[in-house]
Amino acid sequence: MADETVPGGESLAALLHEQRRFEPPAAFAAQANAQPGIYEEAAADRLRFWEQQAERLEWGQRWERVLDWELPFAKWFVGGKLNVSVNCVDRHVAAGLGERVAFHWEGEPGDTRTITYADLQRMVCQAANALESLGVRAGDTVAIYMPMLPETVAAMLACARIGAPHTVVFGGFSAEALAGRIQDCDARVVITADGGYRRGAPSGLKPAVDEALQSCPNVRSVLVVRRTGQDVAWQEGRDVWWHDLVERQPTTHEAQLFDAEHPLYIMYTSGTTAKPKGILHTSGGYLTHVSATHRLVFDIKPEQDVFWTAADIGWVTGHSYIVYGPLANGTTSVMYEGTPDTPARDRWWQIVERYKVTILYTAPTTIRTFMKWGEQHLEGHDLSSLRLLGSVGEPINPEAWMWYRRHVGGERCPIVDTWWQTETGGIMISPLPGITATKPGAAMRPLPGISADVVDDQGRSVGNGQGGYLVLTEPWPGMLRGIWGDPERYRQTYWSRFPNWYFAGDGAKRDEDGDIWLLGRVDDVMNVSGHRISTTEVEHALVGHPAVAEAAVVGASDPTTGQAIVAFVTVKGEAADDPSAGAVLVGELRNHVAKEIGPIAKPRQIILTPELPKTRSGKIMRRLLRDVAEHRELGDVTTLMDPTVVNMIGEKLAQTP
Ligand code: 6R9
């Protein structure tokens, strides 16, 4: 992997020379939730460590065993029973904290709402009653396709309360993508909104639901929150307004206990094939993992902190660190509906100042966008409330890390670079603020209770600056329990590369001190602005267009988005030779991909070419296309059927805007 570049453009060689270290400030260390000794304690008895974390939750019935492990299937807290929504809401109200703010919510147009734990309890109970009135029972799946609203959280917790696993589909996904997910998990009820605000304008969601449901005949009810007030089509008997149904329900609801392994949610994520995988998370272990990591990694003091995960609820980061982790810990969070540059590029810094945010958690792509906009947008805003910063979603390049530290953190806030995945449920590798001396660009060490390694092809541990594959060598409580409806794919995807370990799909290196640096995906998954998109998924969308003969898609490093999608396409007919027809077609293809998958999957560049580089056995050589897209020297071309093809493609690329 020696010549690889990581997102942000820094080379592995440059990372190896990164020498800066930042010791935890003494005052921070003195008050931190995680104190030295925690690693040794957890290492001495891993299961006991997790059991202690589970004891921080409220259980209706205690577990009999901490873990049943039949590789690759884990059961945590076997025999235990709890209710996730009671843990996130009711127990705090019962403890007298009903007036504590759960969310400072801010809409993009500037409207605000303050939701206390008591408010949230009423909302969740009403929504749970409403779902039951629509016939939703424990075990039924519910699809949620919503903007960032308090009702979105209430909808998720209401599902959890009645034992109905939810699948939240990111509002940026297309009708097609939504339909695929609804069909895969056979959801019968969809919760949505008329629309939400994005970039200063209302953007519709209900129309996409209407379109999706044309191919989802099993959906019987659509519950619609009124957010933007835009006109929506209405199907009597199927569609019902949230304010008509939910807000008329009783504000109490008796929660039942569910088994620790009862399904909590399914989150679809891109794999290496065209079909997204439904990652299944269950209740007791997941909640233990996200609440413990939220407390230790973000040093949460629920009486004082104002926590802000600036991510969408539709991604796992939102599930674990906007909803389940923070609420399980009784935290006050900020939730913001819209984009960072609406109405101006200092919107986030206004929010930090207004709510006195103490902990900010966001993605490198956003940090790089702020860098591009310039630090003048932060000036004049009082950011002195901040005491800790977090990063997630992709490798953070040292330059962005340093900018974050200097301009957002005022050189005083520790930074936690947190590595994890939809599949892991919660944070796995991260510094512990107060203990770990951080290095710009390194996720550092597996958390207490987590076992990870970096290994070569043969499964041998590497060290001293060598690169390899990241593996997780012991089960952990937040781990996925499988792929919805496809146990074989679960085994194949994660547990076959190395026989006894979980293969994460990420490259990593371990430095001389034993600290871990993540290097990006080693498979065909791209990471665009922290969103996982499979190359195959985009190829699939492109070849679905009538003009396209063949398509090959690669991720190329991009200074802002980490990776960007570059597509090489051969077309049927004349378009490839006729530049004006070609330009029109390229525009059409970009929109086609946006429609099939979502705007985030729009290729940055589409290069029309008469040929794709293929091996003699006919396999498209994506590795070479990646070299071309990155303007790198080409690797081995000897297996190519026609070596002149790559040069020609390189020339085409140079001519493509
Ligand atoms: C939480 C989340 C998972 C993939 C993962 C890796 C990349 C996430 C990272 C990171 C380097 C970090 N990733 N955090 N790479 N450093 N701190 O992002 O989940 O959407 O499933 O993506 O994201 O490649 O495998 P998900």
TrEMBL record:
SUPFAM superfamilies linked: Acetyl-CoA synthetase-like
Domain of life: Bacteria
Domain named Acetyl-coenzyme A synthetase N-terminal: residues: 38-88
Residues spanning the signal sequence: none
All residue ranges annotated as the AMP-binding enzyme C-terminal domain in the record: 537-619
Keywords: Acetylation, ATP-binding, Ligase, Magnesium, Metal-binding, Nucleotide-binding
Listed EC numbers: 6.2.1.1
Domain AMP-dependent synthetase/ligase: 92-484
Modified residues annotated as N6-acetyllysine in this record: 619
Keyword Metal-binding on entry: yes
UniProt cofactor(s): Mg(2+)
Positions bound to ATP: 393-395, 417-422, 506, 521, 532
Annotated positions binding CoA: 198-201, 317, 529
Post-translational modification: Acetylated. Deacetylation by the SIR2-homolog deacetylase activates the enzyme.
The reaction(s) this protein catalyses: acetate + ATP + CoA = acetyl-CoA + AMP + diphosphate
Residues binding Mg(2+): 543, 545, 548
Pfam families linked: ACAS_N (PF16177), AMP-binding (PF00501), AMP-binding_C (PF13193)
Gene Ontology MF annotations: acetate-CoA ligase activity
Function recorded in the entry: Catalyzes the conversion of acetate into acetyl-CoA (AcCoA), an essential intermediate at the junction of anabolic and catabolic pathways. AcsA undergoes a two-step reaction. In the first half reaction, AcsA combines acetate with ATP to form acetyl-adenylate (AcAMP) intermediate. In the second half reaction, it can then transfer the acetyl group from AcAMP to the sulfhydryl group of CoA, forming the product AcCoA.
PANTHER family in the cross-refs: ACETYL-COENZYME A SYNTHETASE, ACETYL-COENZYME A SYNTHETASE 1
Family membership: Belongs to the ATP-dependent AMP-binding enzyme family.
HAMAP family: Ac_CoA_synth
Name of the protein in its database record: Acetyl-coenzyme A synthetase
Organism whose genome encodes this protein: Aciditerrimonas ferrireducens
Lineage: Bacteria, Bacillati, Actinomycetota, Acidimicrobiia, Acidimicrobiales
